[in-house]
Amino acid sequence: MSTRTDQQLDPADYESAKRMVQSDDPAVRRKVAEHPKTRPELLYFLAADAAAEVRRAIATNAGTPRQADLMLAKDREVMVRRAVAKKIARLLPELTANQAAQIEKLTVECLETLARDQASEVRGILAEALKDLPNAPQGLINTLARDVELSVCAPILQHSPILTDEDLADLILKGPVSGAMTAIASRRNVSAPVADAIARSNDEAAVTALLGNPSAQVREDTLDRILDQAPQHEPWHAPLVRRPRLPARAVARLASFVADNLLKVLQSRDDLDPAAARDLAEAVRQRVGKAAAGNGLGRNDFAADTHGGASAGPEKTAEKPEDRAKRLNKEGKLTEKVVEGALLEGDRAFVLAGLAELSQIPVPIVDRIVGTHAARAVTALVWRAGLTMRFARQVQLRLAQIPPKTALNARDGTQYPMTDDEMRWQLEFFGVTEKA
């Protein structure tokens, strides 16, 4: 039975700690479990404690021996396993290559156990910790890359330097989980063979991400194949017109079918070579003629419209997306309709800035949340911004490029499908806490 003396014992003192671990009060045992100076043998002993709160404290203690971590990685309580994963996630990025090699010998079995955990949130914590590391175990990375949950595999597929072109080609060939192809397409420096494989997949969201990735090496024949299908895939149009180093033939083809607002973007580009500029001018002339014949507009009227008219002043075009979002919010004009309009026009920078301003989350974190392509995290972001679930669905599909089958739907037609606590937890994973 717990006594007052037990409560007053100092867990930093070895003899006192030995007495405390025998206490009937789990709160007393937890003090020993979480103390940074507790001896390893006592931590190992408490790893088998009957109270989950004590085992969780052991799991968070940096001094816990690896054998105990392995035991806790197999714990029956998900909160304990999650605590182990978070601890390792904090430690791994800070290790040097030599330290990582030494740690790997002791923890590889623990890491592999966590990578097979039945709870996707545990595997997701591990994936986030390993995604950028150049010295992560190759087998473990490939296991996470082939995970059945997008929230787990996407960070690895998008960021891990361990994955080779052969690994990525094999994943594409075998048909990864829905949404995973988009993560591959968003990698830094997508090679030409991988880009070609993505283009051949006819995955609309993945091809959209590929076209919007300026570092992706898209060969001209691959671009021609995409353009063949582009008229039927509206989400491809905006990234296509903004694609760097567009060949003259591609420019002319785009001018024949993109919407007027995107034609303006194409016309405003100053990096087109002379041949491309001539082809564009000819395509615009043909559209002017068709439009004038179809709706009675004069050529000058149509030309002014496609160039933005007199209303597009230089001050507005020069305003940074973050500054514009702050200004509109201060004026009470940063509405869902305004952000949705930017989303439909493919203005990704302003949509991110608008969501950041409304949610009071920094733009880099908003970008990171969107970049996970995780439906729950993106939905929680829009909820935090105070916008509707209907709009959250559009953000999932258009901005985060989440496939329709994977995206979350509204509950009862309009309600968010998660509880407020669940959405707060999703945001806490990115370090986002309650609004001040």
| Shape type | elongated
The biggest beta sheet reads:
none
Strand portion, in percent? under 5%
Instruction: Tell how many strands the DSSP assignment holds.
Output: 0
Tell me the span between the first and last alpha carbons. 43 Å
Q: Encode the helix/strand succession as letters.
A: HHHHHHHHHHHHHHHHHHHHHHHHHHHHH
If you average the pLDDT, what whole number results?
83
| SS-based class | mainly alpha
| Contiguous helical run count | 29
User: Would you identify the regions where 5 or more consecutive residues have pLDDT less than 50?
Assistant: 295-317
Rg, Cα atoms, Å: 27 Å
* Helical content class: 55-70%
Question: How would you portray this structure in words?
Answer:
The protein contains 29 helices and no strands. The protein has helices at residues 4-8, 14-20, 26-34, 40-46, 52-60, 66-73, 78-91, 97-115, 120-130, 138-145, 150-159, 165-173, 180-185, 192-200, 204-211, 220-229, 237-241, 248-255, 260-268, 274-295, 299-306, 314-318, 321-330, 336-344, 348-359, 363-371, 375-384, 389-399, 420-428. With 436 residues, the protein is an all-alpha fold. The relative contact order is 0.05.
Structure keywords:
elongated; 0% strand; 436 residues; mainly alpha
Topology:
Blueprint: H1 4-8, H2 14-20, H3 26-34, H4 40-46, H5 52-60, H6 66-73, H7 78-91, H8 97-115, H9 120-130, H10 138-145, H11 150-159, H12 165-173, H13 180-185, H14 192-200, H15 204-211, H16 220-229, H17 237-241, H18 248-255, H19 260-268, H20 274-295, H21 299-306, H22 314-318, H23 321-330, H24 336-344, H25 348-359, H26 363-371, H27 375-384, H28 389-399, H29 420-428
